[in-house]
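Marked as duplicate of an earlier ticket. Keeping the data here for the record.
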Amino acid sequence: MMNKNEAEERHVLAVLVDNEPGVLARVVGLFSGRGYNIETLTVAAVSEDESSSRINLVTTGTPMIIEQIKAQLERLVPVREVHDLTEEGPHVAHEFALVKIENEGPDRREALRIADIFRARVVDTGVDSFVFSLTGAPEKVDSFLQLMRNLGETEISRSGVVALQRSNKDGVLNLKGGLRDD
């Protein structure tokens, strides 16, 4: 029985799948068909022969919902493995963002100063705009965007979270699939 006071949690899932047409649609369909939300989603081939892809997705739900999501993902035929990086221990999660800001005068100098603090790179510049490239933890990207929005009109493109489990105490990654399992 579900506890109505049970808090929602944010989880990063890594799903290793066969790299074939329709797999992503099946995974996304599982979420939409059951009313689950996907906050971010990234997909890329990870094996040398491109026979498998890794789907990194971030979702939220109560612990019971997260367990249901993982169980349902594991039952999909093209899914090879499901890892809940949030539960499996420390992991590294990063995003890539391109941020265009249009502004003038002192706000332009301030945008450059903030970009320097966040180690964002200027990848394009115009008379009244900059395009910055930024990588880092989602919280870092969020903070940068909040500051930029205060300085002018922004246009944003984000990659979504990509994540890997950190090394265990022996210094060896222990994820399967496109990664290592020693």
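See parent ticket for discussion. The domain at 9-88 is CATH 3.30.70.260 (Alpha-Beta Plaits).
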